[in-house]
Design goal:
Blueprint lengths: L1 E9 L4 E11 L2 E7 L1 H12 L3 E3 L4 E4 L1 E6 L16 H17 L2 E6 L6 H11 L6 E3 L5 E2 L11 E2 L3 H13 L5 E4 L18 H13 L4 E7 H10 L3 E7 L2 H9 L3 E3 L8 H6 L4 H9 L1 H14 L2 E2 L10 E2 L2 E2 H11 L4 H7 L2 H6 L17 E4 L15 E4 L2 E5 L3
Helix pairs in contact: 2-3, 4-5, 5-6, 6-7, 7-10, 11-12
Amino acid sequence: MWLIGAHVIDVEHERVLADTAVQVKDGRITAVEPEAGRLSSQVSSAEGEEVLDLAGAYLAPGIISCHAHLSIVFPFSDSDEHEHPGKTALRAARRAADALRAGVTTVRTCHENHRIDIALRDMIAAGWAEGPRIVAAGRGVDSTGGHGAGQGCAVADGPAEFLKNARAELAAGADHVKIFLSGGIAQQHEEFGHTQVSPEEIAAAVYAAQSHGTYVTAHAGDSGPINAGLDGGVRCYEHGYRLDEPTAARLAAASAWLVPTLTVSRSGPWMKEHGFEEWTIKKALDAADEHLESTRRAVRAGVNIANGTDAPPGDLSAGVPMAVCEAENLVEAGLTAVGALRASTLDAARLCRLEHETGRVEAGLAADLIALPENPLEDIRALRGIFLVMGAGRIVRNDRS
């Protein structure tokens, strides 16, 4: 197939390749060529390939969401970690399909009940289910009574148990390890600054991940727990509701990553729509101003930033997919439109260690593509106009057809 008449977004070099044709074969991009009009006549008459004319639309890499939960239940009080795995699987599969149709072609999960992300990842790869590429965490590893209590985590106490449980998730097929360093919004009496794991437990999880050639990402709400993670070698941090300047500088110096998930504290109407308790909504909204300022500190310090929603990325908030809302939030936090698009594509691929597989429109990479009428390098809100989604070379949505 040839996609012609496109203005290709070159995220890496922050430019637009006007009037360009992109060839897709067997799920991959095989050519990115200029002079779309000439190529159009060639491929239609000489090669007999299917041609889709994008008529001047912008063609960009698919969105990558680096903090997703596909099996999560809202409100949190309705969660049942002992529910039948079939229910978990069906809910996660629906969320995965929604994400893909929204333009999210890759998700990195950060804990799923019953390790359902691992099973769904393999089903999608085999063609048995529709959804984005999944980079899976399996079950998060949590201490007794920690932030993930009641969500089906692997519960561990002491370094030996953290090591064993992290190894178990990796042996089951997890791509990275998720731990919980601090309290958060989901539990009423937790504090962001309370570090819930010991230095030895952190080190054990990191050792397990590194011995499998991967890394640990950690739920962390405050600078104290983040510094504990940095001491132990944790590579990535989720949320960072309260992040001071020295810690931001330390994150940047360590080339660590922050996935701010600003949607967590900026989605009051969506939370009400999904039946969250009033105390949960208040706790989230009360954190919003400092959460945004903390992300601004990280941006100013030069911390690696990636898009992540915490909520299912294809869920709609006021009609806008959560992953797109998060890209817009990142602009409000100080990233340029280009920076927010990078955080949602190329840089997110780097965090997921998929930069040689996806995140750019380039020959040899997977054909994970979105098309939209306006240029997202100028205004990130252009992502609201996505009308075509291609995942691994297959068109899953084309509103113009």
